[in-house]
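Deliverable D5.2: sample structural annotation.
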Amino acid sequence: MAMMWFSANISANNLAVGLLGPLLFGLGFVDSAMCAFGGILVGAAATAYMSIWGAQSGNRTMIVLRYFMGYWPAKLPCVLNMILMIGYGTIDCIIGGQILSAVSGDTMSVVVGIVIIALVSWVVAVFGMAIFQKYERYAWAPQLFVLLILIGTAARSFNPSLQSTNIQTGKPLKAGPLTAARLSFFSLQLFVPVSWTAASSDFYVYYPENTKPWKCFSLTMLGLTLSFMFVNMIGIGLGSGTFANPAWKEAHAVSSGSLIVAAYSDLGTFGKVCGVIVALGLINNSVPGTYASALAFQVLGRYGKMVPRYLCVCIIVFIYFVSAVAGRNHLFDILQSFVALMGYWTMVTVVIVLAEQTLFKRGKRFDWEGWEDRKVLPLGIAAMVAFLVGWVGAIVGMYQHWYVGPVAKKVGGVGADIGVWTGCAFAMVVFVPLRWWELKKFGR
């Protein structure tokens, strides 16, 4: 279990998130590292919690949600999960294309690199979970090897003494803006591991029914935390060194992928080989997302079940290939905005599931055979209203370059992204009394 999550997440897309601490938010090395550590722990814990349902129920995550949100309301997370996984496939293709283009000395376009990543991801995903789990069992080794080499060759340019500064003025961040930057980067780091909540049960459905929930939780938590912390610290190191390293600064002006390749520049041809391996390692991350997205489509309803999974995979890969080609010059914007938007709804969903289990289903058994029996499942009135109200809370607390919520504006005097916290708070306040009323009125 732990190895699967470790293998899937020691990839360049997560490394790129670490770059944002110093390069976008202006945080110093220590500030970036502490925010990353805290955010990853919270996000990984949420995903680990959602993973415990896979083995005991034998159902995918989107099916499990029917027992907490109702038959019809659970279809909304299915659609959002498809968008989420397609978005991450897009990010993987963009970064992989950038790296392969940089390795070739820009003689190969980013588009060609995107084609390569998308094509290999399609081949692995179309053959299903059996080949995927065998693939992930060994795919971590070359990735870990080349990332350790990256540390060895580039660490001397890392700047652990880098202080938090205003990117525009170069002056130290004052208390208010510093708090705002920390909150925003903490939230961003939380959003990446928490995005796996929408699929975490999918990968455990073939485990024995008597698999202990604490094992699923602890091993998932271990794999996620180790992988995300490892690659994010590399990303933070690269970001901190970019300010004083002219070659890195020039490479970063081209793309994040070019910066990663530039960090291997002292190794010559061998460094380029390492860059190719890093790019291909993104397949480790895109394959489970592609597979989970195809499953989400199939559980939308009877018409979705009629579509063969391999055809779903073909459509999904095509969509994120086209999206990656269109957005290849806007990676940082996609990372900052898309990851946050998807993080809001996943955390609101976790809050609803946790509240239902601990407050209303404590000690009660689920009828896991009745996943299509609407008489067994809750109506979902409380869950649906809480989910939508949670989105309202996220909107008033979000901070994106295209929109800033009224509550977010007031944080630190400059604004910060607190949408995940306002969203969860709004959802919880609404869900508990409404669910009590729903049970009293309808009995389910």
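Annotation notes: The mean pLDDT is 87. The longest helix spans residues 213-242.
The annotation will be released with the project's public dataset once the embargo ends.
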